[in-house]
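Weekly modeling sync, notes
Attendees: S.R. (lead), two postdocs, one rotation student

Agenda item 3: backlog of single-chain predictions. S.R. asked that every request posted to the team notebook include the full sequence so nobody has to chase files. The rotation student volunteered to paste the first one in as an example of the format we agreed on. Action items at the bottom.

Example entry:
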Amino acid sequence: MIKLGVIGLGRRISGLIKSLTQLDPEFHVTGVVDPDESGARERLPEADRTTARFYPSLPALIRRGRPDALLIGTRCNLHARYAAAAATAGLPLFLEKPIATSLRQVRVLEHAWRDARAEVVVSFPLRVSHLCVEAKRRLDAGAVGRVEHLLGVNYVPYGKVYFEGWYRDYRITQGLFLQKATHDFDYLALLAGAPIVRVAAMMARGRVHRDSSLEPAGGDPEAAYYPHIGTPETGMNEDSSSALLEFANGAKGVYTQVFYTRNSAATRGATISGLKGTLRFDWYGNDLRVVPHAEDTQPEIYRPAAGLEHFGGDAVLLANFRDVVRGKASSVSPLRAGLQSVHACLAAKRSAETGRFVDVPQITDL
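Predicted structure, as returned to the notebook:
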């Protein structure tokens, strides 16, 4: 049996754990740190529901529970705290994104993991989804020539979730660059073949999603009202946000995310171009198209299997984490990628707040 210790057994991480235990029945949750024991126990795999033990802290879990690997699925503002504390355990770690929500948290993580030997799998399923992997393969093979420009878009059809539930708490999310774009900045850097080094960003807040306590009933018909979501002055999640991106290899990019999209208006994907061609893919449309720029050439179209969690990326991440725990593989979504993405997201947030270009710190010693 391979013993898993879980810190924060929320809905997202519990779903992943159930998939992991189906993938490999040797994996069992034996220890949990979560203040909501009754709710967390209900979210455990059925085989572990009565046998898993709950501990008051991560040190107690490690010392008394002796897990073989750890998973962190707390709310966003606690990811870094527990990940830093886990560094000395020397255990494989599955870490939910965003892995930090402030520059201070990033620095703590960098320091804690600088000399750590354990592998970390960051929850970035888009980078290992079928379409992204195929896009990377074709770009590396020269499908567009040297990558010159990248356009990333995310028109989110379920954006109201960031205003209805706990995600509406800006103290936890610190905005939707960190909550949402952390995925996209990661896969764009992967496809560009270089990290993001400079950002200029802007955001719209309080135009579409508004705090219901500030407006009388029957207010602006162009607004969607929710309680306790904050204001632009006190801090709140964005209606939409965009960023200009510069990559270390000289490529340039644009990214936009919109949170009032609905139904079939949803789109998420990228367009990557160079002198020789243009590559475009959309996860919701579930297709990839390469258009060579030479005359008398036909587009190439690729369509993977549809209907998979995070477009197939979750299954790849979980298989990788299983192999990491068993000592058979290295992480395909390492801590370095998570840190670099958070640096870019924090830079975008700061740029949107100040109206200035912001340089993105680079990870050099992990």
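Discussion: group reviewed the output briefly. The first strand starts at residue 2 and ends at 7.
Action items: rotation student to repeat for the remaining queue; S.R. to check formatting next week.
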